[in-house]
Each structure stands twice: as structure tokens, then as C-alpha cells.
């Protein structure tokens, strides 16, 4: 059998309450709020320290706008339908077409947590990725990041185990990560 991923790039996806779409220059302030949130930063060691909204503008204009032209690039801004304000982000962190799998990451503005928004958005992204040919979606979280593991369980992912000293925190300490996945039925 010949399996092929039918890449679409970061297309707009609508849910009941959200619009998932490419991140725009007009989202720079919202992106800055996300990447300067200490609760988010402690779990995302790879992100640089943003010193101002100008860094978000630069990132969007020099990196994202270029990447969005690629059909195999997936990075959604999560916006409320009624406000069109970006409140979060859902991204494909790693992708393996041969194994038909991706690794997802997400962040959500603190003012919008515990309302089901990120679960709603991640479910929609998973459905889209299954539709285009991926068969396994993974997510990893620091064992201390209970909010992310709660989302993983809520959207139907299954816990697969804990990877010891899997990744590095901002302070360079290694942490154990829970691995979760969902497969296309």
C-alpha cells in the first residue's frame, strides 16, 4: 500500500467557538503575551526570552510568514470567533510523514484557561491531521504540567508512559515527561 500525507499547510479550521488560523502580524501583542507568560515559559525551554512585542513582530514577519507558504507547515493561532483575538496556539512540533505521525504542542493565554478552549481546538487539529493522512498524534508534557496532561486525557489521548530525563527546562535541569497519543481508528 502507498501511504501519502495530503499536506494542506495551516488552513483555517472552525469549531463551535473558535477559529484556528495562521498567526498574523496583528496577533503580535497576543503572541508576546503567550511567550512571556511565566507559567508557559517554564515548560518551553526552547523559546527565547521575549523582551518586547517587537520580538513577536520580528518572529511573525521573518519566520512564520515564510513558513506558512510551505504545505507541510502547521502552526495555528487560536482565536475566539466572536472577538478574532488570538488566545492561544497549537503547533506541530515534530512531523514524520513516513511513520504518519506528528507531535503537537499548545499554549493558552492564562485569562482563557479552564473554559475548554484548548481541548476544543486540539480536537479539531487532530481531526484535520487524521483527515489528511496522519495516523498517530503524540504529545509530551513535563510530569509537573498537570494542565497539559488533563487536556490530553480529555481529548481521548492515551497515556503511554513516562520518559525519564526526556527534555530540558529553562534552568537546564532535566525533567521526566509523560507521553500520550491518539491513533486514527
Structural class: alpha+beta
Strand content: 25-35%
Question: How large, in whole angstroms, is the Cα Rg?
Answer: 16 Å
Instruction: Write the H/E string, N to C.
Output: EEHHHEEEHEHEE
Strand order of the largest sheet: 1-2-3-4-5-6-8-7
Mean pLDDT: 93
- Work out the number of β strands: 8
| Shape type | globular
Report the CATH architecture. Answer: 3-Layer(aba) Sandwich
How would you sum up this structure, described in words?
The structure is a single chain. This protein has 185 residues and is α+β, with helices and mostly antiparallel strands. It has one domain: 3-Layer(aba) Sandwich (Aminopeptidase). It is 28% helix and 32% strand. It is built from 5 helices and 8 strands; from the N terminus they run E-E-H-H-H-E-E-E-H-E-H-E-E. It has helices spanning 28-35, 38-41, 53-67, 117-131, 146-154; strands at residues 13-14, 18-22, 75-80, 86-96, 101-108, 136-142, 158-168, 174-183. Strands 1-2-3-4-5-6-8-7 form an 8-stranded mixed β-sheet, sandwiched between helices. Helix 1 crosses helix 3 (53-67).
Amino acid at each position: 500500500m502507498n501511504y501519502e500525507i495530503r499536506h494542506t499547510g495551516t488552513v483555517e479550521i472552525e469549531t463551535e467557538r473558535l477559529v484556528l488560523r495562521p498567526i498574523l502580524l496583528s496577533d503580535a501583542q497576543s503572541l508576546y503575551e503567550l511567550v512571556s507568560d511565566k507559567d508557559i515559559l517554564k515548560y518551553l525551554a526552547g523559546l527565547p526570552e521575549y523582551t518586547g512585542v517587537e520580538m513577536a513582530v520580528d518572529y511573525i514577519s521573518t519566520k512564520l510568514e515564510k513558513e506558512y507558504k510551505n504545505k507541510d507547515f502547521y502552526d495555528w493561532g487560536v482565536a475566539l470567533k466572536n472577538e478574532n483575538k488570538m488566545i492561544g496556539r497549537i503547533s506541530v512540533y515534530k512531523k514524520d510523514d513516513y511513520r504518519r505521525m506528528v507531535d503537537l504542542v499548545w499554549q493558552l493565554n492564562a485569562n482563557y484557561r479552564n473554559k475548554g478552549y484548548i481541548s476544543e481546538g486540539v480536537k479539531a487539529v487532530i481531526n484535520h491531521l487524521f483527515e489528511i493522512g496522519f495516523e498517530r498524534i503524540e504529545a509530551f508534557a513535563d510530569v509537573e504540567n498537570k494542565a497539559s496532561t488533563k487536556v490530553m486525557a480529555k481529548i481521548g489521548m492515551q497515556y503511554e508512559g513516562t520518559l525519564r530525563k526526556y527534555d530540558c527546562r529553562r534552568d537546564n535541569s532535566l525533567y521526566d515527561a509523560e507521553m500520550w497519543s491518539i491513533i486514527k481508528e
